[in-house]
Write a structure and sequence with these properties.
Strands 10, 11, 12, 13 and 14 form a five-stranded antiparallel beta sheet that branches. A four-stranded antiparallel beta sheet has the order 2-3-4-5, with no helix packed on it. It has a four-stranded antiparallel beta sheet with strand order 15-16-17-18, with no helix packed on it. The protein is mostly beta strands. It is built from one helix and 22 strands. It has one helix at residues 10-17; strands at residues 32-33, 35-37, 43-50, 53-60, 63-71, 76-77, 94-98, 110-117, 123-130, 132-138, 144-150, 158-165, 170-171, 186-187, 189-195, 201-207, 215-221, 226-231, 245-249, 252-256, 262-267, 272-273.
Length: 275
């Protein structure tokens, strides 16, 4: 994730993703997802906006089993540029909603989140942070909300990961960085994501620029408030990077193309690329 001299525009990014039909934000965020499902897949959560309100619904077998209304516009956060939904804690007990992205060529001055319990969709927290923040993950114990902060209007995909303490109701002052290279600038577009069943680790594949062969995996230790960045071999061949996927198998994180070819293997214990 070394510093890039190229400022990627939203126009370039949209062109890169048009071949896979992704609904992509022109700003720093992937945007909103239509819905997100519980870990068991039995319940689906949606958020619809209108008339200055957001209606959140929990749907089981096509039937609404719970709903609530929130003042303002909020939605289910996407965590990749192709719309992979996020917002749920690993155990499915918390749901975080975010504001829709604002595509005005810059960063917003404040960001708002709403935290709900999935049992009855009861609000447990309303969070307002100064600056441009988006959802990243929730810790397995539901005490930490990880958010991604963008700070540069000149480089909208440069970011840092921050931790918000849900118990203390405060944003922790230090960024979550790879201590092996704490000054390294992080930038890129999220392509694919997978988490361990416990939610202790969240792995996200990034491409450094739209259509770039330069890729890396951001490994977030969601249980331990730490992170590691793993540079990968250059993406080669005719496979579309936006159709890549991540899989966990036998202690390995596999980076795969759409056709199923494994292009990189990462040992999840050592966090090193296997040769």
């Amino acid at each position: 994730m070394r510093r890039s001299r190229t400022i990627v525009t939203g126009v370039v990014m949209l062109a890169a993703l048009s071949s896979v039909g992704a609904a992509l934000a022109v700003g720093p965020w992937p945007g909103l997802a239509p819905s997100v499902s519980s870990p068991s897949g039995e319940v689906r959560y949606t958020a619809s906006r209108g008339g200055g309100m957001t209606t959140v619904r929990a749907i089981r077998s096509g039937r609404v089993v719970a709903s609530t209304k929130i003042v303002g516009a909020f939605g289910i956060p996407a965590v990749t540029s192709i719309g992979t939904p996020g917002g749920l804690s690993p155990d499915g007990r918390l749901l975080v909603l975010v504001q829709p992205p604002v595509y005005n060529g810059g960063l917003r001055t404040q960001s708002r989140f709403v935290v709900l319990t999935t049992d009855g969709l009861r609000r447990t927290a309303s969070i307002t942070l100064p600056g441009e923040f988006g959802f990243d993950a929730i810790s397995p114990d539901r005490r930490t909300l990880y958010v991604i902060q963008h700070m540069s209007n000149r480089d909208l995909v440069r970011y840092v990961v921050r931790a918000y303490d849900l118990s203390a109701r405060r944003l922790l002052p230090q960024a979550i960085v790879d201590k092996r290279s704490p000054s390294e600038v992080m930038r890129g577009y999220p392509v694919a994501r997978v988490a361990t069943p416990s939610g202790d680790w969240v792995f996200t594949l990034y491409t450094k620029n739209a259509g770039s062969s330069l890729t890396f995996v951001h490994a977030l230790n969601a249980a331990g408030r730490s992170a590691f960045c793993i540079d990968l071999p250059g993406w080669s061949g005719g496979e579309n990077i936006w159709e890549a996927r991540l899989e966990l198998a036998g202690g390995m994180l596999l980076v795969k193309t759409k056709s199923g070819e494994t292009v990189a293997r990462i040992d999840t214990q050592t966090l090193k690329v296997a040769t």
